[in-house]
Batch of 2 targets.
Target 1
Amino acid sequence: MSPIHHAGRELDSAAGMTIFDYADSLSVRVPTSCGRSGECHECIVEVRSGMEGLTPPTESERFLRGGYRLACQAAVAEVDADVEFAVLRRQPRILTRSVRRRTAPAPLTERRGSGVYFGEERVDAYRDGIYGLAVDVGTTTVALNVVDLERAEVVHTASFENPQRFGGSDVMHRISYDGGEHSGELRRVMLSAINFEVGEVCRRLGIHRRRIYEAVFVGNSTMRDIVFGVDVQSIGEKPYKSLTEVELEAGERSTTALEVRARDLDLRIFPGANVYSPPLVGCHVGSDVTADLMAVGMNEQDDAVMLVDVGTNTEVVVGNRLRMMAASCPAGPAFEGGAITYGMPGYDGAVEAVGLSEDGAPVRYETIGGAPAEGICGSGLVDLLSELRRTGRMNELGAFNDGAGEFYFAPDRDMYVSRADLSALAQAKSANFCGQWIVLRRYGITPEEVSRLYLAGGFANYVDAGHAVSIGFIANVPEERVAKVGNASLEGATIMLTSGRAREAAEELVRRIEHVELETAPDFFDIFVEGCMFKPMQMPRASTGAAAP
Amino acid sequence: MEAHLPETPYMTTQHAGLEKEIRYVTKPFEVKHIRSLFEGTDPIMHEIAFNLISGDQVEVDRLTREALARGFEANAVLDDGLIAGMAVVGIKFRDNIIFVPEVLIAARAMKAGMAYIEPILSESGVEPVGTVIMGTVKGDLHDIGKNLCIMMLRGAGFVVHDLGVDTKPEEFIDAVLEHGAQVLGMSALLTTTMPNMGRAIEAFEAEGLREEVSIMVGGAPVTQEFAEDMGADGYGKDAIACVDMARALVGVRDGSAPLETAAGAREASS
Ligand code: B1M
């Protein structure tokens, strides 16, 4: 008889037992809200091996692809198969911390006497508090804040892995999935997951979910529109516009911001709660970037600043409160665990910092949580690349100077980066490089003229800025001007949750942003090749100037 | 690295750097082919090829101008310098000796040389291995990978007509008819534009032209399985696989072994 594995622990398998049963025996919490009937689609697990030893997918699992199953449906059929499963991780380290910007609250939902008012409308009798929900729906992770609206204070922050992963790891795959026979499924699992998390948080805080009277959602155009049930097919095709943007251009709506009632979304908070999402910047640059800009106070910046929100799609905005340019750079997931032999997201056990020495002393590395190394995450990769260059082990093109095919960053765990990995990292790095370079050039300034570089999102908060500059991952802005702002999108959403004025400011702001299509740079190829090299960005002064293409 | 290199049977050129590069080519028929490219050509061609392989665009730029000033034909500089160098790059890439960034700097160097050559290029007398139409499909603007394929195809002796990006099915059809191409190559980099390859193939079927041309597809999201599903004749996972596929496709058509065809054509031209 073969064992069934989860996170390094194992149990003997017995025919007929579901993965959910095993999870129970191992005391692993798997979310569910339908009594394990296959209806809620919350208990998605990844089957890492032994799929052939499980019962075939049931009717309720038809929406899942690849190595994913519902824990309540998949049962052991073949006791000899070695089954390993993993619950979608609920607590990634990234994304919850952010800058706190002091903004004067101007809440839309207020207590007046014995009533709860949304603007002029009395929505409920006041009971025991007024809460709000801010959600940042990322392609990889979802983060949320529960806010006490009476005190304008965040009372709880939570994050969990985006459960839509079975629909592909990037937005284009999700769009294709949503256009197929299981249309609507992505929205459904997302709302189930949010409802589940809100339930958990409320239980912990001892508040009723109906006391949440307002919500603000931000996300890239695809993620946001999926949540609101807006057809996303137009975002997948040229010219990559949200339906709301298409309607705005046709004069059918006045903003790409969305506003609905919670009951229309199946969001289980106060049913009449107002659910708002700020306007999109344009194309793939969504309302998460609008929120970023509010978090860094773009509406008050007089000098030119730059915001880089690092992710599978990195967003770049350059400008001041009067004039801004934005672009989305398709980096791909290489720095977030995708396509790299030992790559992984920033979970426990990920190598997050690496130091090398010239004299052949062993590699020094640190992992998140101090756990044994399981892989390497973005900040670790940036350190590694920079150190390989600094110590003369690797040339600009990602070839090892000793002719080796790989470099062991965790020799004790037999983990290495290969030349193919470095090639994938070079291309992802280059996409980040191209976006910054082209937007800076269009705007007509050099990195030295950027008064502040705000690094937001994902692993950027943990990255060594000097190392990131040394390999050209970010523009060579003097290090003291680099400010890490963590999950600025969630912070911006929270600001807009607590202030109607901030929403107006956001509307104003997006109208001043020009969207730059990177493909329109006639010399894209040359910039991309330059960006593939691991060296600091060198922007010739002569190449800038507002008139340049 | 040096230790892995086999003994060289003979020297084709006086260029130590280029000789070292040539020694990365190990398959006997390829060694024969690559050496034939450099046999008896002027040392400046060896200089050009070597600098292209090293990705030195400044040197390739300078040497191309120098060769033209010394009276070499544009075609000779292209075939004996740039394309001969690219042939080595292709093999090193396929054999995992170099990776995309190194191929890209070589391509950039090639572009630098082409800037002088393209405007004065005349119809070359050499019998091409085959004619290929290449383009990125409708809705898709990615062309870096496709352009690498084109360079390598040209390096292997194909005549390639590049339709650029965002190419509609009708444009593929018109180009195939106009140039009497044996092969059509389509590239797509987006999950959402990949189905446009299948649509283009359907358009050929609808026009009753599917039998006229062999169709190959490629690009990051494309797999062998997708290629078969959409009814393509071939799939290439990278630029060099694209060349091998094109050879196989034209080879099948004229009945000769695909790789011999390419090598044979090169030899006939030198
Ligand atoms: C005929 O036979 C054949 C045979 C083999 C063939 C072949 C044909 N064609 C290619 N091959 C093969 O041979 C080549 C050499 O070995 C290989 O070619 P490749 O093209 O794979 O490799 C090249 C040598 C180098 N690689 C590349 O050129 C692609 C690199 C990445 C970074 C990339 C780039 C550069 C760009 N992009 Co784009 N872009 C990404 C890429 C992410 C990544 N890290 O790889 C990708 C492809 N982009 C993506 C996206 C989403 C987008 N992009 C967009 C735009 C762009 C730029 C304009 C900025 C630029 C392209 C510029 C240009 N002139 O090509 C947008 C769409 C624009 C459009 N209409 O096409 C936009 C929608 C993003 C946006 N926010 O607007 C993603 C697609 C995801 C998906 N699942 O569909 C992406 C994977 C990044 C990601 N994960 O997010 C093989 O595939």
Target 2
Amino acid sequence: MILGAYETVKTARSGQRPTGADYVRNTISGFFELHGDRRFRDDPAILGGVGYLKDLPVTVIAIDKGHTAKERIARNFGAPNPEGYRKALRLMKQAEKFHRPVLCYVDTSGAYCGIGAEERGQGQAIAENLMEMMALKTPVISVLIGEGGSGGALALGVADRVWMMENAVYSVISPEGCASILWKDASRAPQAAEQLQLTASCCLKNGIVESVVPEDGLGSPDFYGRLTDALYDEFVSLRTLSATELTHRRYERFRAMGRRRD
Amino acid sequence: MAFLNFLFQPKNELETGGRSAAPAAAPDDPLKTCPNCHMDTPVSILRENSYTCTCGYHFRIRARTRIGLITDPDSFTELFTETASDDPISFPGYSEKLSSARSRSQESEAVVCGTATIGGHRCCLFVMEPNFMMGSMGTAVGERITKLFEYALENALPVIGFTVSGGARMQEGLFSLMQMAKTSGAVRRHSDAGLLYVALLTNPTTGGVTASFAMEADIILAEPGATVGFAGARVIEQTTLRPLPKGFQTSEFLLQHGFADAIVARPEQKNVLISLLGMHEGSDAK
Ligand SMILES: [Zn+2]
């Protein structure tokens, strides 16, 4: 069924969908959580650690929104602070050291907009992740599982492959934000959602993502099994590339986006 | 230093004495009123002071004006002028917005790039243009900045960049967001070759530009009193339901929290850049 773009936004935001922690639990065996950024504190919005994708040791990083009201508050509704992005970067650098692939599950309305977040350099934290991920000498796959909210999502999305759930969205700005800034009318969010081309099929067409993951049986063992197999095969093929070739292709992947001729 | 502390000075000092003492406007030398201290100053005097008021207020200036203040006379050669935005997601009203931005700013896009010498030191330079959709970053801005870093890498040149931006240009959708990753990759390659990048943050630098190349420089300088941050102040207030602290997201706030190396007033910027460029001469990996 084809949903209108704004319907898809609402689906992507739904508390009924599997969260980042659900994906980790169901695709990674022997997961061991690693906490903290070694700078300030542990950010509960981002879950990180090591485990096996089938027989392949991986570093996995997931933004988790939580299901219950209590969980959602504890997870800050999946809105990371700078220390969350710094934890993610620490774990990615660790993965690079041990030649482990990195798997990111992304689901956020955006990086947290708070006083402390600004004091601790939200912009700098995201910028550093973009720059470091661009040069990371180990394969990275990012899967957008729900909301891909702007820079806060991109900070875990500079990957060799970016995949998107069928009903996930990825956008430079929320449709509500876009409508209120451009048209001074947040109620025109559905129109903004259509215009922003934020659905998985648009992202695929625009070359922003490589693959759209069907949501048949979303959250079922079959669903996770298919996803695990697909991720495993992709990592196996990415691991045949040298670090130089890998980072070169990653650079070219983003370099091609919005390329203009002189 | 008056320039560094103007934000915290009582405003009446210049306001009371300044106004009556202000010279009458000459027909070819109009007066400009400072929004900070309300004093009127002839444009000729402002020009001599790099478009800063005696109270320390920094007037907003065009990219071309800034290039004139910073580079050696006739040394600037512009690059990538043909790299312009189209309308990649056919956003309603965007084409019209682009045309009016072009005529208002007299620029083809929100950043001017090129090579120049500064105190005799050859470098690549990018200067963002506030009058072009408030320096928002779309594909053309991302592409020009990426090309500039690639050019600088090829020619082993340092990059000096002046930022002013409201953030990503939403009318280009995800293509504008992806420019954050693209420019970051180019900065990284340039950096890996041992080349210098100095960013100078001016008012305002926010959103996707702060969260990419503005914060990726080896040395981050800021103009006094500039607003620099990731999220918009109003959004933060709405999210946290708390009043924002005084001086929140200013250059001074950035310095205090460790995200800028120094605050440099406009009249001193050229000399500071000359000295930094000199110190890094021949530092590249070649
Ligand atoms: Zn003044």
